[in-house]
Amino acid sequence: MVVGAIKTLIVGANGMLGFDLCKVFPDAVKLTHRELDITNRDQVLESIRRIKPDLVINAAAYTDVEGCEDKQALAFKVNGYGPGYIAEACNKMGATLVHFSTDYVFDGSKTEYIESDAPNPINVYGRSKLLGEQEIAEKLDDYKIIRISWLFGAHGKNFVDTMLKLSGEMAEVKVVNDQFGKPTYTVDLAHKIEELTELEAGIYHLTNEGICSWYEFASAFIDNAVPCTSEEFPRKAKRPKYSVLVNTKTGPMRHWKEALEDYLKEINV
């Protein structure tokens, strides 16, 4: 599939990842949540029928992990059934679907996960995203499900921005030191999608390289982070201790520390 010669549709174009995808695919048709509600099956089928894309990239999601615990029905609509409607529409139009899932489909009982490992989510967000994976696989053959983790980018709320803000307001910022993953820069991820369109259907893990705890991540860009345990910082949604995704199917992306340097330049820090 030659990306420049095909018609691409980006759904969720105004989100943190969607914004950077729009830069990589400047000629794509771009739809925001206001223009396409993916929980409305009829609207999804009609929009994709009208646009007739060859490739649909779905970056629409409900990513508030705590919010998903409070709004479970909404989480399953947006993250579960919505992707299924998009897959159904892609199947009718003969289009390829690229969809983004999450490291939180795993329970954290292993120190790292490859694409074929069995999911076992421990919070509503993870369960809703797993439902999205299942809906897509059931309704479409030509899909790429991309599991991602710990996203940061210039056009949406993220951990780096939150820590920078707290660092300026507090003498010490407590950050958990017993949850491990791979921070991933939306710019790097968006550029990697071009390569992925050439590959066979299936599930992919795509992250920047390098494993760290949230505390280690925060310490890379603020100097007043203090380690604490998850028990000291209770949250409504249970988090996996390890959500390290291993990419076995494509070439590796650069280390997250290098990506972080570019992000801090992008936001003028």
Question: What does this entry look like structurally?
Answer:
- The protein has a single domain (3-153, 182-210, 244-254), classed as Rossmann fold (3-Layer(aba) Sandwich), CATH 3.40.50.720.
- It is built from nine helices and twelve strands.
- It has helices at 16-24, 41-51, 65-70, 72-93, 124-139, 159-169, 186-196, 214-219, 256-266; strands at residues 8-11, 29-31, 55-58, 96-102, 143-148, 151-152, 173-176, 180-181, 184-185, 202-205, 212-213, 225-228.
- A six-stranded parallel sheet has the order 2-1-3-4-5-10, with helices on both faces. Strands 6-9 form a two-stranded parallel sheet.
- The longest helix is centred in the first third of the chain and has 22 residues, at 72-93.
- The chain is globular and about 55 Å long.
- It starts with 7 loop residues before the first strand and ends with a helix.
